[in-house]
Amino acid sequence: MACVLALSCSSSNTEKAPVAVNTPTAETGAPVSTEPAIDGATRGPSTEILFHRGAAPVLTGWEETPEKLSSSYCLECHRETHGEWQQGMHAQAWTSPIFQRAYEFESHDWCVNCHAPLSQNRQGAEPWSKEGINCAVCHVREGRILGVRAFDGEGGKSHEVVATPYLGTSAFCAECHEFNFPESFAHTVTYSDQPMQHTYSEWLGSGRERCQECHYSGHKLLGPHNEEWMREQFSDYQVEALDDQRLHVRFRIARRGHVTPTGDLFRSLVFVLSADKARTKLLYEKRWGRFFGTGWTKPNQISTHAMKRNSGLGPEQDSVSLTLDTPPTGPLYGALIFYYHDPFFAGEGKGRDQGSSLTLWVDRLR
């Protein structure tokens, strides 16, 4: 979704859930649905779905002219848009160190098909092989350029744009951000009935704005990997000593349409109370995130990919308050940390991604 156009529309959630959004088909992993788009048009049947939840690479119809698949092909006429895209998360979908560490640990074409989905990317020699989710990934199908609004090309002076209002819906985001755990990678990807990412389903029940309203600035995709944006989501930290042995901590969370944290596995939000600045003498930890355990079983096969509990903060929760027992004397430090890969949830102890975190706030409390 590197090039979803930001549009003005009603701030309320008006989309309807696609049929079987959490039970994608075994062949493609894509839902089958019709869905109202932002201008009242309807989304077509599954043949119009633009992605396949990692089950297949993206085909644009420009494969015979691969030089057109690079974002540089769009740069001359869309310089400002290109600059916005470069600063966003989709441009780093493949090169992100966090993703690359995960990919080294578990390498599947399924991962490539979402993080660098142009079909030739896995050859690695093309100039756009590291561009992640670039312009063509979202805006070109069957050799035609798609946009939220139609454009006739002004008599051949520029290219035609085919109206595809679906690009401006949250369901479009769901094609890469709502899918189940893969059950098999043999021949084609098949999926279990256990959600791996279900951000879209969380959003559907929230009544909040489309994904694009919060996560896009022009064509710049904003989210947890943007540190400035992420810190802005948490604010108004307040600390009050109730007495010598009790402390009250409160902070606010920005308006949003999904659970926090959401998305990738093993993300967490953690509040830490410690007796030293280095946080080696922990007194208290509070974690928000998803806990997984044993799910479906088959002959000679057990899956631990079943969510047992989600302690995340729902979209209706705009603040957190903690009342903590504390030692009567000595220094106290508080910190709020976002883990991109929390070893606690991954069952790894001091695991491979121990450093994949962002400290959102830290302060001496006493």
Labels describing this entry:
three-stranded mixed sheet, disordered N terminus, 366 residues, 17% helix, five-stranded antiparallel sheet, alpha+beta
Describe this structure in words.
With 366 residues, the chain is an alpha+beta fold. Helices cover 17% and strands 26% of the residues. It is built from ten helices and 17 strands. The chain has a five-stranded antiparallel sheet with strand order 14-11-10-16-17. A three-stranded mixed sheet has the order 1-2-3. The protein is globular, with a radius of gyration of 22 Å. It starts with 71 loop residues before the first helix and ends with a strand. The N terminus is likely disordered.
Write the layout of secondary structure elements.
Blueprint: H1 72-75, H2 79-87, H3 97-105, H4 109-115, H5 135-139, E1 140-141, E2 144-147, E3 162-163, H6 170-177, E4 178-184, E5 190-198, H7 199-204, H8 211-215, E6 216-217, E7 220-221, H9 227-232, E8 234-243, E9 246-253, E10 268-274, E11 282-293, E12 297-298, E13 301-302, E14 306-310, E15 319-325, E16 333-339, H10 343-346, E17 357-364
Parallel strand pairs: 2-3
Antiparallel strand pairs: 1-2, 4-5, 6-7, 8-9, 9-15, 10-11, 10-16, 11-14, 12-13, 16-17
